[in-house]
Known about the structure:
Elements: E1 2-6, E2 9-11, E3 22-27, E4 36-40, E5 45-51, E6 56-62, E7 67-72, H1 75-80, E8 88-92, E9 97-101, H2 104-114, H3 139-142, H4 150-153, E10 172-178, E11 183-184, E12 187-190, E13 204-206, E14 212-218, H5 220-223, E15 228-231, E16 234-235, E17 245-248, E18 254-255, H6 257-267, H7 272-283, H8 302-326, H9 330-347, H10 356-366, H11 375-391, H12 398-418, E19 445-446, E20 462-463, E21 466-467, E22 474-478, E23 485-486, E24 502-505, E25 515-519, E26 528-532, E27 540-543, E28 549-555, E29 560-565, E30 581-585, E31 591-594, E32 606-616, E33 621-631, E34 638-639, E35 649-650, E36 665-668, H13 670-677, E37 679-680, E38 688-691, E39 697-700, E40 703-704, E41 710-714, H14 722-726, E42 734-738, E43 749-759, E44 768-775, E45 782-783, H15 814-821, E46 823-824, E47 843-844, E48 847-848
Helix pairs in contact: 6-7, 6-9, 8-9, 8-11, 8-12, 10-11, 11-12
InterPro entries: VCBS_dom
Amino acid sequence: MLSIEKYEQNINLDNLMSSNEIKELILRDFQKGKTITIELSSNISYMSELTNDGKDLTLTFNDNAQTFKIVLKGMVEILNSNDGTDLIKLIETDTEKTYSISDLASAMEASAAGGEVLTQGDGTQNPAQNNELTFENTPALAGRLDTNNEFTQNGFFPLIENLNQNNNETNVFYSGKLIDGYISGSTVFIDANNNGILDAGEKSTTTDANGDFSFSGLTQTELEAGPIVAFGGTDISTGLPFEGFYTAPNGSTTVSPLSTLMHELVKDGLTENEAESLIANTFGLVTNIDLLNYDPIQEQNPQVQAIAVQIANLVNLSAALLSNVEGQDELDASLIAFDSFAQILQDNPNFDLSNPADIEKFLREITNNNPSLDFEDISSNIANINLQVEQAVDAQDPFATMAEIQRIQAEDLENKFTSNDAPNTTEEVNIIEENDLNDVTIGGTEIVDYNYTGSVAGNATDINGDDIEYSYAGNLNISLSTTNTVIVSALNNPSPEFTQVLKTYFFEFVSNPLVSAVIDDSQKLQEIEAFLLEPTTSITDAITYLNNLTQVNIDLTTGEFTIEGIVSEKYVNLLQTNNALIIDMQSDGTYTLNSPYFNLLTPNEKLEISFDYQSSDGMLVDVSTVSLIVNGGNEAPVITVEEPIMSALSESDFADNSSGIPNYYKIISLEEVYNLLGVEDVDDVSLTVSLDDGKSTFTINGTDVTGDTNGVFQLRDGVYNSNWANQGANENDLVIYSEEIDSLDENQTMNITFDVKAYDGTDFSEAKTVSVAVSGENDIPVITVEEPIMSALSESDFADNSSGIPNYYKIISLEEVYNLLGVEDVDDVSLTVSLDDGKSTFTINGTDVTGDTNGVFQLR
Length: 860
């Protein structure tokens, strides 16, 4: 058994330990003051040596069945400058012995203890070698050795046989993982000449269905010949082809966007430690993660995965753009994008992957500021996608959510970048400002119908042969219940003084139109007003959208009209209806959608929306269809009552335990609790209430008595049975029990709280605390002795009557009688004994002599 933990990160050795060949693991990026822990069983022998011209420390382990090497890259420099901290700690798990390495001397003592003379390979021979498993013959190092160390005392490191091969001839096994999501069917090769191309003779393999790859039969020289490069294949999380490439330094066990960026930084001259620190500090990652040997999916770390996905989105989309506008091969474009991003990162260590300004600077860099590109629009789109990835960290299934964002939005954007139909000219898109005649207005809008199958389209309009520049602007509030077409256009003239005819179609004459026009004949058609027309209301003035008109002509038969005058009002509010679907188009081309219908979608439903986005550059018009799928999700229920309080109970409401149920219990129906909470859920699903176990409290007049003798539980499946059914309970009802209930007196109150959550079958609401007060009552004392018998008396125990007391009497003390009866009372009160008058009997040898001459009375 062998396990390795680097800076609290467990290194997965499953693949490495599965082959019969000599296996090797390469670790990098070591830090002073931090410890690598290696746990092994006592049957595993061990040796250390310096390799790579004395720069690396190699630890070799052998259990007679297989040999395993750990190469600690650059560790020698750390050992030479260390301050005494344990950098490596080896723990023998079955004996709990420990050996620590804190400097070069203690590292070499392990080899001296092993007794193996290393004379081949590039290892530096231990200056303190000996041929015995003791330390008496190592004068060069004996003064540096911790003789109290259990490994030292017991000669823990025995001789390792069969290791005197030349390292360059040794067959090694090397495996790893290709990660964006996991990528299957990808070609992975060792790039011996470092040109990024799989050349003849270079070792290669293919990732399996889980993204795993492995090389076997390699020599050490072949393994270290160059970086690991991967291209092609399919991302199994998105189903999309992998069209770029990822790299990693040789020996890395994970190849990913993060390892690729790190490799590019090292190519630029940074050390691996410097590159890893730059990435961690820029993107807010914890510094103890080894980016070359870390699988965020396996480790369930969505924060690290989000950074990797954002880098992949930026580089892949940039490469697609570069390939389209510059004609670059896709792999070459990916290489340029990664290389440029590494340089940008060094210049701007505060680079934000979801900041449009940072992304725009990067895009301008790699495309040489290509004038045909709308950098603001493209950057905003990429930033928006990456922002959604960042927000997906908090999703219920963050990894699936990130994959879905890549699958739909990132892929759609990449397809637009690579489309041959897209114009290569800059799109002029502007928001219409009030009284701004230079800007443009919305084009025609076809309303999305109730089945979400319609589209939103813009239409260019000519004014005397001149093209009008226009954009979507502000909120387009589109009815989902009717189908209407409305076209509103603005005059496009730099001068406020003009007379020009604008010809367009106002609206189709269909039932319940959204916008209608009223012409005032008394004003000689010089005024036009827009109205919102509701099916059940009269026409009322809504928005005056044209001012200072000199001429209006309208043909109500065809719907065609002409206008002369000055346009001074923007028209973005003309389509205010029932807010069923709101598309907010910004001047940079970005948009947001919202609808009250979204929250009503269940996890099994989806809403399909498509609309056309059209823009003009003054010469060309481009129309792109945006297709969106809004997948329904579950909305957690909400408990609306902040401090739910149940109706007060009394002690007598609690039943005694007569069937094995905890003493003094009260069944609370689930319906009663549910009705108390005011539960709401926008999804049309069945709701219930679940007890938050272990959160109940019990106090008596302010004193906490919470403990094992009281509590609240729910009659869930496995607890509910026929016994509870016989008590009148239903499944999922709640039960309050307390052994202290019966001891409450009439001056005491027990306050009970318990936490509950509403549940809709998928998600829980936030917990709310329910309170209930139980008032105490006086309990009747109990005589526990069924047939109390006093000690026998004799005639002489009775005294003669000498002072008017009936003849022959015996005084019985109250204490004697009380003690005889075994009186008990659950209430903490004073007790006494009272004679039940007239109930005494007297017999002599079985003959009843009860009468007026005898009796028992109490001295009250």
